[in-house]
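Letters spell out the chain; backbone shape is given numerically. Take this protein:
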Amino acid sequence: MTIKYPSTIFKGYAYTFFSFFGITSLWVIYLQMQGLSLVEIGLCESIFHVASFIFEVPSGVLADRFSYRFSLFWGRIASIVSAILMLAAHSFWLFALSFVLSALSYNLQSGTIDALMYDSLVTPMQTKRFPNVISNLNVVIEFAQTAVVVIAGFLVHWHFELTYVAAILVGVFGLVTVLLMKEPAVPKSIDQPKQTVKSIIIMAYRTLKNDRQLRGLMIFQAIFDGICTSYYFYFQSLMETNHFSGFMISLLMVVSSGMNIVGIKLTP
């Protein structure tokens, strides 16, 4: 039997596709071409993660105080401005500012689109289908990232700056998708206290302090992701140094993304 989901779910898939249309995923190579050293490139990546850590809680509060669409809209605006700065920048600090805005855009959408899609399933009483929706969402993310890496790989040695022009255009498509979405009307308890940044931080601290297993898993993931991320980004530098062809770069990225998609579908 065909399952009929609210239209917001499919618009959420479209928004996610545009948001993760990572045509700028080979940014390490791009920054090298702009004259930045590997140390400066590493600092840009560090700035991104520090900014993302700082923005994580406040960005979630914004979605609670205003609306999901508010956060998603400004997330795309930040992404577009970040891409413009990457095109216009000629100094390390402007590139660093671009990474701060990129982190902000990531935080404004991180978790927000998931929450919006979940709330969209509440009224039609389809919340049990949410794990399947999230699984599909992750496949959309991997498909988007795979498709654009192929394009970016071929542009490495031919007008590489076009990747950021494309990122701006895709950001506009993301904005249009947000405007077409309908904010789900989910009744909230009157007695439920409003969450503040302070209360969220205290609750997170107590949870991590009391839940040893969760704490261990988070530390493991942080270390594992740190190693994988460092390898992924600096491998781009290796490919550029060894003059890999655009086709070979695209092929390697496609194989990597294909394995990710298989892993997602096999995950319970």
